[in-house]
Amino acid sequence: MELILVRHGPAEDRDAFAGTGRPDRERPLTIGGRRQTRGAAAGLATLLTDPPRVYTSPFVRANETAEIIATACGVTVTRSLAALAPGGRRDRVLQSVGESGTAILVGHEPDMGQLLSWLLAGHPEPFHRFKKAGMVAVSCPEGPGQGGAELRWALPPGVLRALAP
User: Residue 14's domain is classified under what CATH number?
Assistant: First the structure.
């Protein structure tokens, strides 16, 4: 199984959005964030050999990111997972994605960094900070679990955009 962990693209300013009175979960990507994410998603599509399943946090900015990625990969978003929301439980995320194929998980920091550390090193202390629209791929030869993953690649959005046709 391959997991691709993605931090959502650049979103509206947190403090300015808070002034609207709407909850943070409704904060969307910026226009530039959508453009940056489309470029990164196009680069990601060149790296995939099989159609992925795409899972997303229910927050608007993550869902918008997942939709952009799904479109670039020629698939639809498979499922919104509450466990991918900030503070979600990684065991619930991993139960939802199964143990085969390619799954793209779109979420938030520091959760994506913690999940990556847990998958690779067996502890949740993050050692990698995801840039917005940044992605990391890991291979899980025996299914996703604590400390059993192997790093395939870690790419910031600028490198992913450079891979796009």
Answer: 3.40.50.1240
